[in-house]
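Final report, Chapter 2: Outcomes

The project's central promise was a pipeline that accepts a single protein chain and returns its three-dimensional structure in a standardized token representation, suitable for archiving and comparison. That pipeline is now operational. To close this chapter, we reproduce one record exactly as it appears in the project archive, with the input sequence first and the structure output second.
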Amino acid sequence: MSESHGSQGVSRPSGDSIVGGGFPVGLGDVRGLVDEIPHIVWLSGANGSTEYVNRRGIEYSGLPAEANFNGAWVSFVHADDAARAKAAWEEAVRTQTSFEQSYRIRRADGQFRWHDCRSVPVRGADGAVVRWVGTATDVDGQKTLEENLRRSERQTAETLTLLETMQAAAPVGLAFVDRDFRYARVNDTLAAMAGMTVDEMVERRVAEVIPAAWPQVEPFYRRVLDTGESVFGSSGTGAFGTDPGRVHSWLSSYYPVRVDGEIVGVGLIVVDLTERNDAEAFREVVMENMAEGLYTVDDQGRTTSVNRAALEMLGWTEEELLGRSMHDLVHFQRADGTSIPIGECPMLTAHTEGRSIRVEDQIFTRKDGSMFPVAYSSAPLHVGSTAGGVVVVFRDITEQREQQRRELEERHEQKLESLGRLSAG
């Protein structure tokens, strides 16, 4: 699969052919064997001009057996690879060194597939190149696999970098506490709340860092570890071990952290409310800075507060929602349009049963009537010792669903491709 150089003629032994079906004189006895090789095989003259392409190459290209490949092979190469492949081949012929390149070759059906192409010079007794022998091996499946792996590694690295950046820059305290109640990971914000550096705080027990507050927060840690349920919006007050003269107030949420289904510790989000004790400060620090939608309702299901992310996702204004039933406006119907009676709404179960609820697949309705899938957590909102309403945190999972659909389609296509290769073999 090579082309001649310049306008000079091509000299061949008498009887040689440059067509696909031809085979150079003296090598005809192995033609049958070469035609059975499941790779494209070609022979070129000393100057790089094509003399023979085996049956696999003829079938792959879709050209008739008598087709003249000489000078035309570049037209089968993908436009993005053609110049590179041609230049590499010309350099190999000029320097009389082996040729190795990977590029995409067009199949008879128009599809381009990656091939590893190699060609080595055959030398005569005097050491001069008399012919080139080349092969093209289909490696499209391997290339796809490698690309998927690279993409997966890149996405993983990007995700880790994003999480580390968000953790470092987050205006709230973040930590991971292991099953021995030791801080395994802490961000700068939480360390600053404790009046310590991250290095000083890591590996120390929670009870050592906040001894006065430990009796308040210990039940939440144990509940998460014992039940696997999250605890949202728990308020607390106390002094830190490094600052015993000052009483701090904070709002904390505790989440189970699982590895292979096993709870290995507790994720902690802490908002320091020491300098922000009024409701407006709470809204700005906690609600307005959340990427997830958040709203609260009273014991009658009427909206008492809603954050900016929720308003943007739902299409309502705060004035339109406050005092109205979120069930009647937002989560009153299923994906098929059938209504959900308020008594069957799982979101309000958090209030009636006094426990947190997590739902991974629910339908919310926007102001314009359009619906979108969400995952949400609903937890009782305590006022003093009683549950005075419900706090709901939700996120749009439309993109997540689409990603899952694409992954399923990709796996399906890979299976079909594998079956096709097995059939061909």
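Archive annotation: Residues 28-138 form a domain with the Beta-Lactamase fold (CATH 3.30.450.20).
This record, like all others produced under the grant, will remain available to the consortium after the project formally closes.
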